[in-house]
Amino acid sequence: MYPRRSSGPWYGRLADRLRFEGNARRHVVGLQVPRRARRGGVRYRWCVTPPGCERRQVRIEFPVIAPRHPRVYADGPADSPHRYDDGSLCMWYPRDPLDRRWVFDDGLLALLGQVAAHLVKEHIWRATGRWPGEEVPHADDAKAA
Q: Would you tell me how many other CB atoms lie within 10 Å of the CB of residue 113?
């Protein structure tokens, strides 16, 4: 008998989803974990109140086209130097070394931590006009230079 082959993205396999979701399912208040993947991927929802900020609704999407690269959206004020044109959060520079950005093997709990930290930074930027922490110039910044 041949071993069973797994096909499709990680979120279509229960064991892989449970491994990715890990401690987030047990320890994160307000996290909505989908029962099954949709045709277009998988979507997590989360209500969070980052320190010093108002409550925010967060949506994390892992699309079929790039199942290990999430797009993260948050409600509330959208003015931020670290958001893409579609409103998703720009939380790390994709070409940074692995230890300076989130990667899939870090799991959902680590991603949620980075989302909360990003929302706090946006809040500080709106209050002070200065982004706390390191920044990488964006395409629009490079055009202006």
A: 14
- Gap between the Cα atoms of 109 and 126, Å rounded: 26
Question: Has residue 115 got a pLDDT over 90?
Answer: yes
145 token code pair: 């230079």
Q: 101: how many CB neighbours lie within 10 A of its CB?
A: 14
Cβ(122)–Cβ(82) below 8 Å: yes
Location of structure tokens 């939380």: 91
Amino acid at 135: E
Q: How far is CA 82 from CA 19, 72, 128, 136, in A?
A: 30, 12, 15, 10
Q: Over the stretch 34-51, which tens digit does the pLDDT of each residue have?
A: 887 777 789 999 999 999
Strand partners, 59: 45, 73
Q: Is the pLDDT of residue 144 over 70?
A: no
Domain ranges within the chain, ordered by starting residue: 10-130
Residue 36 is predicted with a pLDDT of 78
Indicate whether this model's pTM tops 0.90. Answer: no
Contact 22, 105 (CB under 8 A): no
pLDDT attached to residue 136:
80
C-beta of residue 121 within 8 angstroms of C-beta of residue 37: no
